[in-house]
């Protein structure tokens, strides 16, 4: 913020250098740090830590912006059943979540077993594109036992919910937090955390009357996460 809103009383050239710094790409970070030091008359020998700290800050700023662009690029790719990689990824999700149960056909009512709504999961990705599938596979592959536990809990006779649909919905939540820059502090602290596990705990703690109240509790959970992200020291760790 101090770079973006540099005061008008600063010399015009210095003000421009500061404001440009927040838009810098990774390949230009070193040059930008040199420009800032030059305009501010900072002696690299007397204040050696400035260059290191400023570079680290600008790398985080540029990295966050690049991450959003990369995520947005994936989100814009619709699931394509003619794309072999997409189909392999979808089948991988099934095998990760249902290792002892064979999928009888590509289009099948079996997809409901892992929380898809239709016989063909491609119709459920919609706004999140292939990003929703990538997130489901990532969580299932790297946190397999937790994914199995949550899938089992999602079949609760009273508090059950559609595992895959909720996972895609939480991808949209994470995407919106990234886009609004609410995730900055969390990502700057370099600690991994996952919404799927936390939402499952939240859902069972709240004990909603039925799945019909999903949107109400989704927003409540969303507000809870946004509140946590206001803390500059936040790190949303996976508590197992």
Whole-number average pLDDT? 87
Instruction: Classify the secondary structure makeup into a structural class.
Output: mainly alpha
Strand content: under 5%
Label the overall shape.
elongated
Q: What would you call the quaternary organization?
A: single chain
Helix content: 55-70%
Low-confidence stretches: none
Largest sheet: none
Radius of gyration: 22 Å
In short:
This is ELMO domain-containing protein. The chain has 240 residues and is mostly helical.
Folded structure, characterized:
The chain has eleven helices and no strands. The protein folds into two domains: 13-72; 82-230, no CATH class. With 240 residues, it is mainly α. Helices cover 58% and strands 0% of the residues. The model has no long low-confidence stretch (mean pLDDT 87). It has helices at residues 12-21, 29-39, 48-75, 84-97, 122-125, 129-142, 144-153, 163-179, 184-188, 195-206, 214-228.
Secondary structure: elements and pairs:
Elements: H1 12-21, H2 29-39, H3 48-75, H4 84-97, H5 122-125, H6 129-142, H7 144-153, H8 163-179, H9 184-188, H10 195-206, H11 214-228
Domain ELMO: 85-240
Protein name: ELMO domain-containing protein
GO molecular function: GTPase activator activity
Quick tags:
mainly alpha; 11 helices; 2 domains; 240 residues; elongated
């Amino acid at each position: 913020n101090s770079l973006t809103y540099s005061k008008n009383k600063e010399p015009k050239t210095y003000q421009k250098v500061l404001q440009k710094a927040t838009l810098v790409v990774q390949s230009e970070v070193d040059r930008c740090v040199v420009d800032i030091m030059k305009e501010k008359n900072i002696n690299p020998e007397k204040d050696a830590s400035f260059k290191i700290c400023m570079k680290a800050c600008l790398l985080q700023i540029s990295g966050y912006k690049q991450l959003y662009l990369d995520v947005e690029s994936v989100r814009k790719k619709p699931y394509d059943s003619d794309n072999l990689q997409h189909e392999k990824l979808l089948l991988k999700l099934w095998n990760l979540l249902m290792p002892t149960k064979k999928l009888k056909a590509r289009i099948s009512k079996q997809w409901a077993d892992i929380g898809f709504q239709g016989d063909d999961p491609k119709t459920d990705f919609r706004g999140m594109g292939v990003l929703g599938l990538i997130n489901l596979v990532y969580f299932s592959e790297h946190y397999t036992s937790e994914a199995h536990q949550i899938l089992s809990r999602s079949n609760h006779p009273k508090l059950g919910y559609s595992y895959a649909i909720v996972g895609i919905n939480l991808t949209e939540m994470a995407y919106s937090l990234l886009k609004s820059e609410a995730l900055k502090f969390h990502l700057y602290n370099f600690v991994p955390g996952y919404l799927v596990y936390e939402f499952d705990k939240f859902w069972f703690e709240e004990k909603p009357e039925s799945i019909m109240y999903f949107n109400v509790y989704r927003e409540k959970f969303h507000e809870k996460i946004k509140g946590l992200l206001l803390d500059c020291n936040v790190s949303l760790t996976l508590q197992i």
